[in-house]
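User: Reviewer 2 asked us to show a designed sequence for the structure in our supplementary figure. I'm pasting the structure tokens here. Could you produce the per-position amino acids so we can include them in the response letter?
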């Protein structure tokens, strides 16, 4: 379980995120919404131990009881890719441009020693590429990232994220750069892949939250201003800002 309590982030005496608390249980899918600059990505970075230089954290962030804010980088690096994995908006930044896809998927299992040897890691990589519905996994495994479409690259990133069966998956706008039909396919794959794990899903798209998440957190100016079950919050928003977000989205029209 992910537990964040009283998390504040600051840079140069200036507060960016203020006293944020939430939990994501195993098997729970939680959305984090709010306008650009409200602190969503920084909150996720704090959890992953990937805060930008100069940004410091106070409070608590724990995964399965392990302290994520004070752990040494060596320990965090061991957790990232194994216990917690992430999918960001732009798959190209997550992939190594000069390494074949199959080797990249196999490497994440070899680094964390979740496969006994090179050959079984290679076989597991092909299975994963198949699981994220990439056609002809053997051909894809031999390809380099630039030889794939954006949607295919994001499938590869998802395969890498799921490779070590992490207990927490963090997605930050994972489908924003993709066209609508591909978006729907990737969301279905995330839903299938995250079964039983904790999911923190950052997006500005309320329709995506309605489709993917059970619970939603609404962030404004570095604070969580509203939270609850998606249906409750979307049908009966209590905070003005949530109401505004709902009016600005076309979700109303789809209800
Ligand atoms: N490296 C940094 N140094 C200083 N301030 C930063 C840094 N990164 C982000 N910020 C500031 O922190 C605030 C929150 O940024 P964050 O990226 O978390 O927003 P966000 O809600 O994820 O926005 P978006 O939806 O556009 O990704 C913003 O005001 C941003 O300018």
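Assistant: Here is a per-position design you can include in the supplement:
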């Amino acid at each position: 379980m992910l537990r964040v309590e009283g998390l504040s982030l600051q840079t140069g005496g200036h507060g960016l995120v203020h006293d944020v608390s939430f939990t994501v249980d195993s098997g729970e899918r939680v959305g984090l919404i709010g306008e650009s600059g409200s602190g969503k990505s920084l909150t996720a970075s704090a959890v992953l131990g990937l805060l930008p230089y100069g940004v410091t954290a106070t409070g608590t962030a724990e995964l399965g009881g392990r302290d994520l804010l004070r752990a040494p980088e060596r320990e965090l690096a061991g957790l990232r890719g194994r216990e917690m994995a992430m999918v960001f908006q732009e798959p190209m930044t997550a992939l190594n441009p000069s390494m074949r896809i199959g080797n990249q998927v196999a490497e994440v299992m070899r680094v964390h020693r979740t496969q006994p040897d090179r050959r079984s890691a290679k076989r597991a990589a092909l299975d994963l590429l198949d699981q994220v519905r990439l056609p002809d996994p053997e051909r894809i495994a031999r390809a380099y990232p630039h030889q794939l479409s954006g949607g295919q690259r994001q499938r590869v990133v998802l395969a890498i994220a799921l490779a070590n069966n992490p207990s927490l998956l963090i997605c930050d706008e994972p489908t924003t750069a993709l066209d609508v039909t591909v978006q729907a396919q990737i969301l279905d794959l995330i839903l299938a892949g995250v079964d039983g794990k904790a999911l923190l899903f950052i997006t500005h798209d309320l329709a995506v939250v309605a489709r993917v998440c059970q619970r939603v957190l609404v962030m404004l100016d570095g604070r969580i201003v509203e939270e609850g079950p998606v249906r409750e919050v979307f049908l009966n928003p209590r905070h003005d800002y949530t109401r505004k977000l709902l009016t600005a989205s076309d979700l109303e029209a789809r209800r």
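For the response letter, you might also mention the following. The two ends are 32 Å apart (CA to CA). The pocket of adenosine-5'-triphosphate is lined by residues 11, 16, 34, 36-42, 52, 54-55, 204 (CB under 6 Å).
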